[in-house]
Automatic annotation (TrEMBL):
GO terms for molecular function: ATP binding. It comes from the Bacteria. This is Dipeptide ABC transporter ATP-binding protein. It comes from Sporosarcina aquimarina. Residues 16-257 form the ABC transporter domain. The keyword Nucleotide-binding applies. SUPFAM superfamilies: P-loop containing nucleoside triphosphate hydrolases (SSF52540).
Amino acid sequence: QETLLEVRNLKMHFPVKAGIIQRTVGHVKAVDDISFTVKKGETLGIVGESGCGKSTMGRTLIRLYEPTDGSVLFGGTDITKLPEKELRPLIRRKIQMIFQDPYASLNPRKSLGNLLNEPMKVHGLYGNQKERDEKIKELLEVVGLHSSAINHYPHEFSGGQRQRIGIARSLVLNPELIIADEAVSALDVSIQAQIINLLEDLQEEFNLTYIFISHDLSVVRHIADRVGVMYLGKMAELADKDDLYKEPLHPYTQALLSAVPAIRSKGAKNRERIVLKGDIPSAVNQPSGCVFHTRCPMKMKVCETVPPQFQEARPGHFVACHLYD
Ligand code: SF4
Ligand code: MG
């Protein structure tokens, strides 16, 4: 399978400033040396608790934040080095994001026709307004709305419908990759299922690749082909979905999965609930060695000082933990 996106040693460190002269006193390592690939047509799930850096990573991939270091190859081109002018026809068009709250990004004074027309106009797609209107109506139907919605305004729609509008808008530029950040987290469970089914249908129809970011392990289990688990800006583990959910290797993944009863009962090896001690440490003063060592039930001496390498412990199954050295 062809690689669409390759992320190499990506870092996004934000300076922390203090005092009257706003001296830099440290860095939040929101994304810290992460590497992975995404294959064309697959869905890569990214899970982790809030504050683990998964949203920042999604935004850094499309340069809503300028990465501190590392590279992001999209179809072979390193997009971290491209000037904004060259970024637009490539990344601003071929990679789209869907957010948790589509309403926040939909201008309430604009009809759906206007909202969906804007990006097409900016990118100079389709010959004229009539063609663009046809495309908009077609897309509204594709996402399960009526084509007459083109004349309506965002506030006239329910939460689930608004997410459909957000999805339609992400499709107007014929993207190849869609990064969905907690795209169904604000919705009722029954609506979540509808939106996930829609995303799966669209993936088939338009040959889309997804990065699906969510704190919800059950939702990710449903939609993803492979899953990466983040903790404190690091990728702790990455594997095929079935391997990860049935046989998690990293103690953090084991604990996360053990906290979800529906997953525990579905044949995961470790059936006991693992309760982690302590809170997630501050991202400013990260623990030395393995960033998880302050909470890890399996901690060894070496974990306090030596950061574990992110390595392939089994075919296609990557983990950052000294237990697998
Ligand atoms: Fe736990 Fe050590 Fe593995 Fe970190 S490296 S997850 S502290 S066993
Ligand atoms: Mg799929």
